[in-house]
Amino acid sequence: MSSPVTALPAAKRFVLANATLPQICVDGVEAPACEGLISADIIVADGKVEAILKPGTAPSGLPSTDLRNGMVWPTFTDMHTHLDKGHIWDRRPNPSGDFVGALEAVKTDREARWSAEDVKARMEFSLKTAYAHGTSLIRTHLDSLAPQHRISFEVFAEVREAWAGKVDLQAAALFPFDQITDEAFFKDLVEVIVAHKGLLGGVTFLMPGLDEKLDILFRTASENGLDIDLHVDETQDKETLTLKTIAEAKLRNRFKGSVTVGHCCSLAQQEEDLAKRTIDLVAEAGLSVVSLPMCNIYLQDRHPGRTPRQRGVTLFHELTAAGVATAVSSDNTRDPFYAYGDLDPVEVFREAVRIIHLDHPLDTAARVVTRTPADILKRPDHGRIAVGGKADLVLFSARRWSEFLSRPQADRIVMRNGMGIDRSLPDYRELDPLLGV
């Protein structure tokens, strides 16, 4: 199947005719839907969506491109990534492919190589890739053990400014949670986060005094007006109940800010009654949950010579049914935690549909890489198609779900402010100077 568009109209006002839209991504339009897909003509004017009309009803005098029922999505939100770690695999692979091997490999590489120049070059490469795939909003976690926190946050702030308007960026500080009681370190870290408008994060796990440490986290976040984004229960150990403890701590501290929790894998291994109690607490506390299916299916339940039994995902459907905001994201890219990936939300979505069973039906599935993560990140100007909103759109040749999910959609067209962008992906050879090649 060829691309539906060879060139967009060279006009400030034009029609994208005979488009197929995921209804969950469209605001303010009522139309008959089939598998959550609706048909429409879209009028684009001066870089914005002027109108979303019934197909065949757009003014005939306007320049027009017939999409032949090809899908049109809003640009994507990738809400949990690691731009500072990306693309170090070739110089620091993970020989065991498991979580412990990843920790050791990243620690070695970070301590030896993560200068400002190195981190910036890899971030820039990642953002070029994400932009070409159609992503407009990214949250990254930044390794924040001293002295790396000052190096990486300063680089991030510079990169965020340079990419403003192309890819909007947020950053959360990532550190081993037991270090929160190191007063000098944590005070300095909070100063850096506040100065660079970041979020409090951390890798949480069961440890002595976890309740007290969480109280420090929530109190500090309240005092400094910070939101929170945590790594939680990235394990198949059913005895690990950090998620439940975090929900209880948010309620206990009456924390009013946003709290996002990523991974939450052990929840899927717990007995039904305990899992339900935890899910109810998560919903009551208003936590948002992001699953990272590609990375976790790669890392978890990995044993030499043994076929994995577990998928490495949380109880996604049950959380969603309880009213919890749920999304999926890329996580790591070509580093010891995940050897593959390209920061392509289409790949993330396609794999999440398979791994988490987001299909049958697919009616609202598109939300997990569009409007829901954008809402979690408090950026409702992303992740939807709406009259008056920016014409930041991704055009596909696929007309139906089976077509969309069966191919990589490499022929997609990305529109920003009503104009097509250069979708050329950066060449990996650009990274050779960082690898000593």
Automatic annotation (TrEMBL):
InterPro entries on file: Amidohydro_3, Metal-dep_hydrolase_composite, Metal_Hydrolase, Metallo-hydrolase_Enzymes
GO molecular-function terms, A-Z: cytosine deaminase activity
The UniProt record lists the keyword Ion transport: no
Location of the Amidohydrolase domain: 211-410
UniProt KW Cell membrane keyword: no
Record key words, sorted: Hydrolase
Gene3D superfamilies: Metal-dependent hydrolases, Urease, subunit C, domain 1
Enzyme Commission number, as recorded: 3.5.4.1
Signal peptide span: none
Pfam families: Amidohydro_3
Domain of life, source organism: Bacteria
NCBIfam families in alphabetical order: PRK07583.1
Designated name of the protein: Cytosine deaminase
Provenance organism: Rhizobium rhizophilum
